[in-house]
Every structure is written in structure tokens, then in C-alpha cells.
Amino acid sequence: MNQVLPRQRTPDAAVRQRETFDWSWYFTPTAWRSNGVCASGVKWNRAASALHSSGAFLVNTSKRTITFFGTGLELSKYEFDILRQFIERKGHVFSREQLMDLVWEQPETSLDRTVDAHIKNIRAKLRAVRPDLEPIVTHRGTGYSLREDL
What are the residue ranges spanned by the domains of the chain? Predict the structure, then answer.
């Protein structure tokens, strides 16, 4: 006699379960992170995701785009990286040397006034979207920061 006990599964049930299980979810790297915890149980940092919103700014690191009050900014590689540093640490004063070390691959090959030129370009692009705001603050003799209230 071929009896099936209540707690046992028949081979057909096991096959049906494999066929109906959504394996694409299982193999998606971000699937385990949807609740803020990865498969190993370690908390996942949501700020490190590809899309990061910070007040007036929306940063998409995978596409390397930044929007300011809903308007996309056309930024060069260095402008994007500088502005992203500002957005990630609003209110923090960055010296030219710090920005060079954080953004440039070989900071010793560029002049420190290069940072000033890129800051000027970023300010012009932000001003084109919102002429009434001055988001980047100059700290004389120290460096630059992004206003904390944005």
C-alpha cells in the first residue's frame, strides 16, 4: 500500500512547488535587501542605493545624474562627483585639497584652482534652475559647502 502521511509531500507536490516558485526573485541581488537586511542578516545601508534623494536634490549614481528641484543637470564627470560629495555631506566644509583627493584620480596633476572653476560651473547650472538660491557657500580661506536647508 502506498499511503501518504499528512506531513509528507508526494513527489508531484515537490515538482509543482519548484515550478511555481519565483526563482527570479531569489537570484535578484536586491531582493534580499528589500527589508533593509541582506541574506546574511547584516543590515543594509539604504543610503548606498543607486537612487538617493536629499531635499532639493535627487542623485542617481548608476546613471550619474543629479536633478535639482526636478530639473536634470548636465554635469561633467568632475562636476557630478563634486556635487555628489556636497549632497552626501550637507553643511560640511570641504577644502580644495579635500575635494581634489575625493574626486580626482591623480590630484597632484591638477592645480587647486581647478576646483574653483568646477564650482563656478556648478553654481551657474544650479542658478539656471533656481536664480533665487545660492546653494553652494564659500567659506573664505577654508573651502566650500552646500547649504544644509536644501
Answer: 8-44, 74-146
> Pairing between strand 65-68 and 71-73?
antiparallel
* Among 120, 118, 81, 121, residue whose Cα is nearest residue 102: 81
Select 74-146's CATH number: 1.10.357.10, 3.30.230.10, 3.40.1190.10, 1.10.10.10: 1.10.10.10
Cβ 132 vs Cβ 147: under 8 Å: no
Q: Provide the residue-wise pLDDT of the chain in tens; the chain has 150 residues.
A: 565 555 555 555 555 554 544 444 444 444 444 444 444 444 444 444 578 777 899 999 999 999 999 999 999 999 999 999 999 999 999 999 999 999 999 988 888 799 999 999 999 999 999 999 999 999 999 999 999 998
The grid coordinates listed for 81 are: 562627483
What whole-number distance in Å separates Cα of residue 23 and Cα of residue 46? 24
Instruction: With residue 120 as reference, give the H or E element that holds it.
Output: helix 113-129
